[in-house]
Q: What sequence folds into this?
């Protein structure tokens, strides 16, 4: 359209120029030229319109293709984003479920920890906790005949556990102790003065437990010359042996051996081996008697086998005699058959036959 306007403007300019130059020319010539110019302008306008339509169709087709590709890419991207979002939401739900389960476990564990703290805060409940742990360890390692719980000794004292070992060394008493308050105070101490006070209190508690066990559970003539003090906490046991050597040496002198759950397991395994060896020694006489009886049975069996061998030898000799007799019977039968054949041939022949030979004597 712009080009058509330009052409019209040029044509108008040319027309004005012609009018200015040749006003005297004839009207017929001017009309002819104007007609030619109009026709050429119409042709140019038609060509321009066709070209513009072709360009519009091409541009529309290109735009349509590009818009289709763009829409397809946008759709694919949206689908991918949807799939990824769904996967992310699924993973998020699974993780939230795991977190929720972990939160429940943490809540239950917190409840159990609070319950354990309540148990350990009470001295009687703490003592029952140590006794239960002691019972579980002993029952898991030793046979029922090797121990007794809450056994009353001859002095009237009741031991948490009594290991029934033969003399020597004799029964060994185990008592459970848990000096938690002084140990916790030692762990919570921040300055040097508080640490010193807590160390003295902890050492005093352990010394008192050692002395009580030595006085109550080491009974001459009934128990062994030593006893065990069970600490149901590895941390307390480690602290005692790491920083309170003098208390440990005091327990050695008092013949009270301090054990933790781990060291008690090792001690009980040794006790089980000792009990097994004692049972083996007790059964040694029975085993020897059974071995003598076994040897007598072997001698008796050998005599009976010899008699059976003699019977087999006699049977073999009888079988050999039977074979000899059967061979003789077979031979005699063959001879009789030969005599019968010879007798039949003599009846057919006209010549006289000699008398049959006499049978040999057996």
A:
């Amino acid at each position: 359209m712009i080009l058509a306007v330009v052409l019209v403007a040029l044509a108008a300019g040319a027309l004005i120029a012609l009018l200015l130059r040749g006003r005297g020319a004839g009207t017929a010539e001017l009309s002819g030229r104007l007609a030619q110019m109009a026709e050429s302008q119409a042709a140019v306008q038609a060509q321009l319109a066709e070209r513009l339509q072709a360009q519009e169709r091409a541009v529309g087709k290109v735009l349509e293709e590009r818009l289709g590709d763009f829409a397809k890419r946008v759709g694919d991207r949206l689908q991918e984003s949807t799939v990824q979002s769904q996967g992310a939401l699924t993973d998020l739900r699974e993780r939230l479920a795991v977190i929720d389960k972990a939160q429940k476990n943490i809540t239950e564990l917190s409840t159990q920890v609070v319950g354990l703290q309540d148990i350990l805060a009470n001295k009687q409940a703490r003592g029952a906790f140590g006794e239960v742990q002691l019972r579980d360890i002993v029952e898991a390692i030793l046979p029922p005949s090797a121990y007794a719980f809450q056994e009353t000794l001859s002095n009237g004292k009741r031991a948490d556990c009594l290991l029934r070992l033969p003399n020597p060394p004799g029964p060994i008493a185990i008592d459970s102790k848990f000096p938690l308050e002084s140990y916790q105070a030692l762990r919570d101490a921040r300055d040097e003065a508080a640490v010193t006070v807590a160390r003295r209190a902890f050492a005093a508690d352990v010394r008192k437990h050692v002395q009580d066990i030595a006085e109550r559970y080491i009974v001459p003539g009934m128990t062994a010359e030593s006893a065990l003090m069970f600490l149901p906490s590895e941390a307390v046991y480690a602290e005692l042996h790491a920083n309170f050597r003098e208390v440990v040496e005091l327990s050695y002198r008092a013949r009270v051996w301090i054990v933790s759950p781990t060291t008690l397991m090792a001690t009980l395994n040794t006790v089980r081996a000792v009990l097994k060896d004692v049972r083996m020694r007790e059964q040694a006489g029975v085993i020897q008697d059974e071995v003598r009886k076994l040897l007598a049975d072997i001698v008796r069996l050998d005599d009976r086998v010899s008699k059976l061998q003699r019977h087999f030898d006699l049977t073999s000799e009888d079988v050999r005699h039977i074979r000899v007799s059967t061979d003789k019977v077979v031979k005699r039968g063959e001879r009789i058959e030969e005599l019968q054949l010879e007798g039949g041939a003599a009846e057919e022949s006209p010549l006289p036959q000699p008398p049959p030979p006499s049978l040999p004597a057996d």
About this structure: The beta strands are 147-152, 158-163, 172-176, 227-230, 256-259.
